[in-house]
Specification:
The complex is a heterodimer of chains A (52) and B (863). Chain A has 52 residues and is mostly helical. Chain A is built from two helices and no strands. In chain B, helix 13 (320-353) packs parallel to helix 18 (516-535), helix 18 packs antiparallel against helix 30 and helix 21 packs across helix 22 (593-604). Chain B is built from 31 helices and 29 strands. Chain B is α+β, with helices and mostly antiparallel strands and 863 residues long. The chains are: A mainly alpha (52), B alpha+beta (863).
């Protein structure tokens, strides 16, 4: 059972990493618009000719 | 009677003029249902059983028999077929959606073809001026209106992908902006703007004073929810391990360790994201106004202190899981309310964004010819000469230096009749130039102009308003006192036996009595109320308005454009209908409101206009023209006298009678003989009568504040059954403000409904200001509630919704109070176990949530 002393802080650290990632996403504005991205994937990509 | 909203914007000109009150079709219906005061002799509908109603499918004005139900009006077989098909598929929502689009549909009509050229001028673009990217492409950002849902974004981005030269278009639904990357060598912004307009979306440059506060606040709240969610979820699984350990047995060292970690998480939730409640509680203590944050902060602080000491000492209950979950849930509730309020505020901002912020500057005034240049209104200086085309808004105060015209000042002063202006006379910003182009020398702009001064008094009136204490917050105050007393009593009672037991029980009481469900219920109920109101086209920017509208108080109406249509219509006809026919044929090309009402009346009576009419001369009092070799003269009395046309005693008598009744008499003479006398007035809105009746029944005290002539005001008052002693005419904006302030002293909630700039200060000073669609920009900014449908019937929907939302609040209060009572009883008797607390608290929150979401606050069926 003593593995708990190691596993618990580790799990919280892992979760904390996810939390930091999530907050970074929020701060960078990825959650500002909850409607458009859902339909954007339905749009065909435009074929972009490589620019020289 | 319900009327489908028509799609027609029938005032000329760009910007606000085009968004204002598209209510054609209602005038005809008026005669079928209401009893407008003006019908003294020969009601207009009696001679010809016809009226104009919008086609239910496409909105085209269609002549039909009086009394035709609006859902049976079709302009052609095609529309009938389409309507039946849509109904057959059960897609009636299409019409609701389409009517919402009218808000912006009118804006597109305003964006006339030549306006697009401005999209290539940096003066017009302002902050939206394209930025050069390294590879020869440009990037820019615009405000876009007409967006409804994700599908609109899909359409725009998809269409953009097919446009050569437009490399990318990205729509942002959250703040209604679009970002383009385009190749200036291949395409131009004016071309892109035209393309989007064809799809039904309008572009406008971004407001230079754009406020990013919403975005910042939204991100801050979301981040807080993320932190609180992390702490709550982790605290919860540790708590589950502990509860399981209680039954299966757990070694002390592990329990101690789990308790410590859990407490650390709970404390982090309280100190981090939960800090906002302590800030609120402190503010509430400092201002000595009760607030819901107060009991929350009490429970959180006691729970944290006792929980932490228990965790360190290793015995007793530790409350961290409840605390973290509490913070998490409450933050979510607040975020939802924040979003709903912002949504309404944003819709109003979009309305404001489509008003023109540019003017046509006349430069190079020498004989060599002058050039017209579009500039932003902000860059105008006193002394500049600007050109104001017919149908445009005057962008700044000034003096007419060339031309003469008629001005519609109704938005500024409430006058229903246009005022003639000549060389040297002054015009005010915000008025509409009706008949002919004029050049104006600017004397004052922005804050110095008359409308700017009105704005300043609006700001002043808004700041002096004391915020009301919400029902939830009042209860919060009582809560703190009661719960603290009970906790003290519990502590005193149990301390007879053991101090530890007493502390444990008092703390348990404080925590289970925490009004979590209560604090969650208010923002949710308000958010749901705002959301449902928005579906009925009522935008509420301030949730407090709902509570103040729930109980009957004092209600003041503006007249022009609120109770009446704000447009002249022919309401009386004496003499031959033939005169009307001839007059309409020569006036057909005129933009003056009198001319338009004559043409409208002729169309309504299905008169066939003779062709080949020539408009010979237009002066400020009337027009002169030729039809079928006879000379037709239309105008007021002075105009007739100028043309040496005399009136017989009979005509003179009828003329005086009409003028005494408050109508504007217009004479039509053919070959020097008066043939017809028309009475023009501003008819009541068709639903005004019914609404006044119902408001009276609900116990509201009604009154009217108008800038119009007192005689006309009293006439409208009599027609609607408003008490004469509470109806005031010739009120300046300052008078209106003073009246509102005075009636606020009586203690009942004061509501003002208006649409003009002259109402703006009164709207801001009232407890609840309600602006109607089609109103002036300033009145939209001043009022916390905006009826976007422009229908007076929406006012009743709003009041019903407000009452219902308040009822929901009280119901959820009682429910969560009942839970709290049970929990407090258990805690006082020392029976509450950590498990019972952990189950009771979410249970009360969930039931309150369920009730709120299932509640029908704004009757989903508006009829």
């Amino acid at each position: 059972m003593s593995v708990l002393f190691l596993a618990l802080p580790l799990a919280i650290l892992l979760g904390g990493a996810a939390l930091i990632a999530c907050v970074r996403c929020i701060r960078s504005g990825q959650y500002d618009d909850l409607e458009t991205p859902g339909v954007r994937m339905l749009i065909e990509d435009k074929e972009v000719e490589p620019r020289l | 009677m319900s009327t489908p909203e028509s799609v027609i914007a029938d005032r000329p000109g760009p910007g606000l003029a085009a968004v204002s009150a598209p209510v054609s079709g209602l005038a005809g219906e008026n005669r079928g249902s209401g009893n407008p005061p003006a019908e003294i002799s020969q009601p207009a509908a009696a001679t010809q059983p016809a009226e104009t109603q919008p086609c239910i499918h496409c909105g085209l004005p269609t002549l039909c028999d009086v009394g035709t139900p609006p859902e049976r009006v079709f302009c052609c077989a095609g529309c009938l077929g389409a309507y039946q098909l849509i109904h057959g598929w059960g897609l009636e929502d299409f019409y609701a959606l389409r009517d919402q689009m009218n808000l912006t549909g009118a804006a597109q009509a305003a964006a006339k073809a030549n306006r697009y050229d401005q999209f290539d001028q940096p003066e017009f673009l302002g902050p939206s001026t394209p930025v050069q990217l390294g590879d020869g492409t440009c990037r820019t950002e615009f405000a876009i209106h007409g967006l409804h849902c994700g599908a609109c974004a899909w359409l725009i981005e998809n269409a953009a992908a097919r446009e050569p030269g437009l490399l990318s278009a990205r729509v942002k639904m959250s703040d209604h902006t679009i970002r383009f990357i385009f190749d200036p060598a291949i395409t131009q912004l004016s071309h892109i703007a035209r393309l989007l307009d064809r799809l039904g979306y309008g572009l406008a440059p971004i407001d230079p004073n754009r406020d990013d506060q919403f975005q910042r606040e939204n991100r801050r709240l979301l981040a807080q929810i993320a932190y609180a969610g992390f702490f709550a979820a982790n605290a919860m699984w540790i708590a589950i391990a502990l509860y399981a350990g209680e039954y299966s047995g757990v070694e002390d060292q592990y329990r101690y360790f789990l308790g410590l970690v859990g407490t650390a998480l709970g404390a982090a939730a309280v100190v981090g994201p939960g800090r906002t409640f302590f800030v609120g509680a402190l503010a509430s203590l400092r201002t000595r106004t009760p607030h819901m944050d107060l009991p929350l902060a009490l429970a959180l602080s006691v729970g944290t202190v006792v929980g932490t000491s228990n965790a360190i000492l290793g015995h007793g209950h530790i409350y961290f899981d409840s605390l973290a979950a509490l913070v998490f849930l409450l933050l979510i509730g607040r975020w939802i309310q924040f979003r709903q309020q912002q949504r309404a505020a944003r819709s109003v901002d979009l309305m404001l964004r489509i008003t023109p912020r540019h003017a046509t500057l006349v430069s190079g005034e020498d004989d060599a010819g002058e050039s017209h240049r579009t500039v932003l209104v902000d860059t105008l200086r006193p002394g500049d000469v600007i050109h104001v085309a017919a149908g445009e808004h005057v962008p700044a105060d000034g003096q007419v230096v060339r031309g003469q015209s008629n001005m519609d000042r109704s938005l500024l002063t409430g006058e229903s009749l246009p005022v003639p202006v000549h060389m040297g006379e002054s015009v005010a910003a915000g008025t509409i130039n009706l008949t002919a182009p004029v050049d104006v020398q600017v004397t004052a702009t922005g804050r110095d102009s008359r409308i700017g001064r009105v704005m300043q008094s609006v700001e002043a009136a808004a700041t002096e308003k004391i915020p009301i204490v919400q029902l939830a917050d009042r209860l919060g105050g009582i809560f703190v006192v009661t719960v603290t007393c009970l906790a003290l009593a519990t502590f005193a009672f149990w301390s007879q036996w053991s101090l530890a037991e007493a502390t444990a029980n008092a703390t348990a009481l404080l925590i289970v009595a925490c009004p979590c469900a209560l604090a969650l219920a208010t923002p949710l109920a308000i958010a749901v109320g705002l959301g449902r109101a928005a579906k009925s086209n009522i935008l509420i920017r301030d949730g407090q308005a709902l509570q103040q509208l729930a109980k009957p108080g004092v209600l003041w109406f503006d007249k022009t454009g609120t109770l009446t249509e704000g447009k002249q219509r022919v309401t009386t006809l004496h003499g031959s209908q033939d005169g009307l026919r001839l007059a309409a044929s020569i006036e057909a090309s005129c933009r003056h409101p009198v001319a338009q009402s004559i043409v409208f009346e002729a169309e309504r009576r299905r008169l066939t206009l003779p062709s080949g009419a020539i408009l010979d001369r237009v002066s400020s009092g009337g027009v002169l023209g030729t039809v079928d070799q006879s000379q037709v003269c239309v105008g007021n009395l002075q105009h007739m006298q100028q043309q040496r046309i005399g009136l017989t005693d009979d005509w003179r008598h009828r003329f005086d009678q009409l003028a005494a009744a408050g109508e504007s008499p217009i004479l039509i003479a053919v070959d020097g003989q008066v043939l017809t006398l028309l009475g023009l007035s501003d008819p009541l809105r068709p639903d005004a009568q019914q609404m006044v009746e119902e408001l009276k029944q609900r116990g509201w005290t009604l009154g009217m504040l108008s800038g119009d002539h007192p005689g006309i005001v009293l006439r409208v008052a009599d027609a609607l059954g408003l008490p004469r002693q509470r109806c005031f005419g010739a009120m300046s904006p300052e008078d209106k403000l003073a009246t509102i302030r005075q009636s606020r002293q009586a203690g009942r909630s004061v509501v003002m409904i208006g649409d003009g700039a002259n109402d703006a200060a009164a709207l801001a000073a009232a407890d609840v200001g309600i602006a109607l669609r089609g109103g002036a920009e300033v009145s939209l900014q001043a009022a916390p509630v905006f009826i976007a449908s422009g229908r007076l019937a929406s006012l009743l929907t709003l009041l019903r919704g407000a009452t219902s939302t308040t009822r929901l609040l009280i119901l959820t209060f009682s429910l969560s109070l009942a839970y709290n009572l049970v929990a407090v009883g258990l805690a006082m008797s020392g029976w509450v176990s950590p498990l019972a607390a952990a189950i009771l608290m979410p249970l009360s929150s969930v039931s309150v949530l369920g009730l709120t979401l299932a509640w029908r606050s704004f009757g989903e069926k508006p009829h």
